[in-house]
Amino acid sequence: MAPAPDTVPVAAPVIGEYEIAAVARVLRSGLVVQGPEVAAFEAEFAELVAGRECVAVNSGTSALQLSLQALGIGPGDEVVVPSFSFAATANAVRLVGAEPVFAEIDPDTYCLAPAAVAAAIGPRTAALLPVHLYGHPAPMGPLLALAERHGLAVVEDACQAHAAGLHGHPVGAFGAAGCFSFYPTKNMHALEGGMIAVRDGRLAERLRLLRNQGMAERYRHEVVGGNLRMTDVSAAVGRVQLRALARRTARRRANAAVLDAGLRGVAVPVVAPGAAHVYHQYTVRVPHRDRFQEELARHGVASAVHYPVPIHRQPAYGLDLALPVTDRAAAEVLSLPVHPSLTEEQLARVVAGVTATAELLAGAVR
After folding, report:
1. What is the mean pLDDT of residues 169-183?
2. Domain span at residue 91?
3. Element (H or E) spanning 289, and its range?
4. Under 8 Å between Cβ of 95 and 75
5. Model confidence pTM above 0.90
6. Cα–Cα dist 114/62, whole Å
7. What is the tally of structural domains in the chain?
8. How far apart are CA 181 and CA 194, in angstroms?
């Protein structure tokens, strides 16, 4: 059933006149793939990741896959990942021929729990792949310490966490590679695309080869690569979105603060000490989640569930693992509107709708 026209949307991707003008400029130039706009976007995005070298690709999934491949991770290797994430996190591991090992999450932040990661590390473990889920940073200090102790690579899935940080350091700039997505519903987008931030120039060069059929120069193939390039159309949109990211992130945080102060009857997001959350999703925990979502829609407030089925339980994986914290999160989480296009009136409707729904369901349970 389609939402009513006056429903408060859970997401509102921005494609405005500046984005349209940027696209038109590129189309008129005739330089539409892997050209000057991509190079400029890479250089400008580097400022968001402590000056790391950036390599643009065609999606966040490609960013993860190529990062693992460039680091030499493949058949026979294992990579520790959370099961509570979008499937692309684990899919990228499988796509390079390695095997994901699913570890438990922290019940408050939904990010990998270091103790669980430590228990999951075995003789075949080659890398850790923490996810900065919903825009909240994973606990990189303990995870990096584990990686150093065991000689593991760290690839950050920062696909939901543009401009997030931990103790003043930006996500995407902790591990060997940090991966971002520019899908339209992200905090910034490029219509579609991804970015890899790396500290090693040699790794950046390998990534550039892998994204472009292994070519450093035309018709000279140094390695076996694929066609995973970003278009200049996407890069032009991304550059416009990047310029607005700080302002829109501030608005997300302000909206989250309103929700934190006003919501009753639900468990609001927890922000760990030193974490700079960017609220890609404002995710609460509620009892009787499916009914809660249905009743909330009656109040004209849209919501979404990210993610109702953990990756290890997906048909593609079908694993019978004991991950109770993950299972409980999957059954209870509900993401509410927090995007920067919300008006004060819409925010008030979200608060009122959630409160009324929580009261209704509390009374029904009694």
Report:
1. 98
2. 17-239
3. helix 289-298
4. no
5. yes
6. 26
7. 2
8. 4
